[in-house]
Amino acid sequence: MKNSATLQWRQAALDDCPVLAELNHQLIRGEGHRNNQDVAQLEQRMRGWLHSSEYSAVVFEIDDKVVAYALYRETAGEIYLRQLFVIRTLRRAGIGRQAFAILQKKIWTNTKRLTVEVLTQNEAAIAFWHAFGYQDYSLRLEIMPKA
Q1: Which of 64, 73, 103, 144 has its CA 20 to 30 A from that of 5?
Q2: What is the pLDDT of residues 6-22, one digit of tens each?
Q3: pTM (two decimals)
Q4: For 76-94, what is each residue's pLDDT tens digit?
Q5: Does residue 138 form part of some domain?
Q6: Could you tell me where the beta strands, DSSP code E, fall in 49-131?
Q7: Beta carbons of 129 and 31 less than 8 angstroms apart
Q8: How far is 69 from 19, CA to CA, in rounded Å?
Q9: What is the total count of domains within the chain?
Q10: Helix crossing, 17-31 with 39-52: angle to 10°?
Q11: What is the rounded distance in angstroms from the CA atom of residue 86 to the CA atom of residue 45?
């Protein structure tokens, strides 16, 4: 187990998929995403991503309790952070900042472009990423199908 202050980190394993799916479900509901998958479906999706090595995940713990996770995909020129989630009761305590610092300093190379997507209504997340130096690059627009 690696350490950064009291925040421990480790690469996620397939055994972590149930807790990752529960946290992913909380993330989806909290940010207002349209994904309507239940926890069991999210677990299957997470298991597929980790099993195929399409994505990697890092689990962050304090006192052996999972408090956050990150899910990312790495290619030749980019690291795409798909999800970074801190449990709601511990937000604004610096865990997200510590987790991102661990990713940058201990896990990722600094020779690749870092990308993340944020829903436009998630102003707190946009401010969080701007604080790390992320800059707006594009805005995806859509027209929803008629019912």
Answers
A1: 73
A2: 899 999 999 999 999 99
A3: 0.86
A4: 999 999 999 999 888 888 9
A5: no
A6: 56-62, 65-74, 78-86, 113-116
A7: no
A8: 10
A9: 1
A10: 120
A11: 20
